[in-house]
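Cross-posted from the bioinformatics board.
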Amino acid sequence: MEKSVVDELVAIFGKEHVLTANEDMIAYSYDAAHAEIKPEAVVFATTTEQVSQLMKLAYRENIPVTPRGQGSGLSGGSIPLQQGIVLAMDRMTRVIEFDPSNRLITVEAGITTSDIDPIVAEANLFYPPDPGSVAFSTIGGNIAENAGGLRGLKYGVTKDYVQMMKVVLPQGDIVTLGSKCVKHVAGFNTEAIFVGSEGLLGIMTEVTLSLLPIPQHRESALAIFDSLDNAAQTVSDIIAAGVTPSTMEFMDNETINAIQNFKDCGLPRDAQAVLLIETDGEENSAKAEMAKIDEVVRSNNATEFSIAKTTEDRDKLFAGRRVALNALASVKPNLILEDATVMRSKLPEMVRGIIDIAERHQVKVGIFGHAGDGNLHPTFLLDMKDEDEKARTDEAVKELFQLAIDLDGTISGEHGIGLEKKPFLMNQIGGAGIKLLQDIKMTLDPKNLLNPGKMFDMPQQV
Amino acid sequence: MNMKISATQEAETHLLEAAKEFQKCMQCGKCRSVCPVFKEMGNELYVARGKNKLAEKLVSGELEITQRVEDAINECLNCKTCSANCPAGVSPEHVVLRLRWYITTKKGLHFFKALIFRQLLWRKWPITLGCAIVGIAQKLLFGIGPKNPVRHLFPLFGFSKRRNFPQLAIRSAQSQLPEINRSKAGQAKMRIGYFTGCAGNLIYTNTAKSVVDILTGFGYEVVIPKKQKCNGTPVLANGDYEGAKRLMEHNFELFRKYDLDAIVVSCSSCGMSLKKEIKVFIDDSPELSEFTGKVYDINEFIEQNIDIKPEHLGELDYKVTYHDPCHMVRGQGVRDQPRDLLKMIPGVDFTEMKNADTCCGSAGSYCITHYDTSIKINNHKIEDIQDAGVDMVATGCPTCVMHIADNLAQHESKEDVRFVVEILADSLRAAKTI
């Protein structure tokens, strides 16, 4: 990077917030996806104004800018594909305003999502979306990827909680979108377009989130099945019975065995499926819902059903699920964690389809995930140094995406497209869909400098 | 020529061992939420996955050993918080140690470090003598209280005026105590070897005396082999694999000569090293398994073996909290035992402080080589101690005691910092049990 540009970056951000050494570029060349590209400089923003000045500089000098939260993304959204500048947002961590009477909190985009709950819990409120990375991802990153989590079925996902945001547009303009009001129809629903925009349309610097009261009571249970169909039928029947569990987690036989090899969590190795189910709300209603679930589970021939009586009981029931990813990670040197999602009614077909794909390509896959909202995490286990196995796994992943599309599902439930799923987006949304995305991008970022090359290519790039 | 080839091979071995660990890294970033160093530095280069990535680049040859690589590798407390929290089961601290050994093998050990690790620590007497001389000087100069004008000279040496240094022993514990300490309660139930650690020998001699008094008072014979040397922790942490190996082999051979039923340790890092790290340096054998299986942290040993009854304990009017040393809680899994011992003592008002098991930043020599960062890390600990509203912090690691006491003094905070065994011995002495 030219010295004059670096000098300008130092003038904007201060010396201690600009990195250019080779070793630092290596440290910011990757995230939780499987690609790495070194940027030419890394800057740490502490104010919205700095971000605006950076974008003006980038537009003047034609330098690509890639925003980054904590680099925990699984689709490569924060990898600087065309080098240039990485804009790290993780030093913008202030809480601007907590407004319990309107159940709102306004924070800077770099705050760690799990840091929100202790603040709002004092007013008996909570922020529901809880992606697996909740303790090490920023709220800005969560919004940019429209992150989900375990509670999607009952509480929805990140997009359901974003009220208002301050955004720096690619050419440096600062705009405030949305409103703190519950109802707001002045202009387009523009804030919605930035949720899930993967850092292509603008840089969120401040966000206002809506909050909910902490449920008074929670019931937790574990159901074990010796047939996949019985487990799947149970999921459908629970919903049909009018119950909305806050959590309904699924684990398959491969995952169960990986867990038992890793640590004895008391799961039977011959079980074909396990469901972890929670209801919450007012105590009587949470218990009544759990009673209905009890009935449904029994009528579907579960081999075991236990309801936790104490917090320790709950911890025991959840012990397996908590270590599921660790356990799968210990089977082989590497893993590819996917998030293809279908409607919950298609869950049995999806699970059987995935197992079939894995068998045909002779690859190992463990399936766990959020059964309530149809968001599964098929986790392919492999040794990436084994080129043959890597090729077979890549082929299996490709087929997995097509399977999700064929079942009217989606190639990504919560990880985003980024680099990893970019080749498959066309199959999902079609040429006209891609064209619309390109047109929107062109309107806001005519020089294609903000996180270029992610999600889709611009027409001139193809 | 042969020497050169073997050094190159040794360096390669360290890289290969590091690779076994970092290859498991999923780069998820969870280490960012727990690493105490990253919390202060805020640069991915210093977090576990960043170090894994540097190691990967060193192995692939895309990166050479640069000053910045060395700096990054040296910014690690070996606190094991990342490995305890890693979803992929990586132990990044082992990557860091392997890289430090690799760099030293490639570039040679710094003259000053070679002098300390391979000469002074090995010979031992110069350290004992040096401590005695400094100890006398400390008595003469600081003996007249904290307003001592000598403190105005501290900044000349780069120390803060309020910097608190522990009083070094004029007579070491190993010279005060006999090699064989007979049971004071009849026929000895067991013959126990006591590994004092350098700090127990040369600084915290009251801890060593407490260990011996408690064990002999409850009917154990305690052997303190006089030829014991440093266990190697500071040596291996500073990149000297060979020096650490020599010390470990020495202690392993020495303790085996005494026909011991158990070996107790009152220092967290010595305990971890004798139980676990030694396996990296000495080839696996039935003798080694027998040895490591016999090592106990003193709190662990007392809790498991000694039936302390209420009538054994005298009342102490202490308000206490407990700080978990990294190498006890994560290094050895010793968490409940020291707390149980403290809670057993009548009169002791125990309060669990927040974040009791986060690293205090001392990390052995890290707080000497990286004092500013280590104090920043420690400032969080001081806040938690002050919030607990106690008048005493109990722990089980000499560098934790040293560092926390230093920073408490700099905050003009009055809490005392002591070893759990010292407090237990106070109570047993108050009831005239020992």
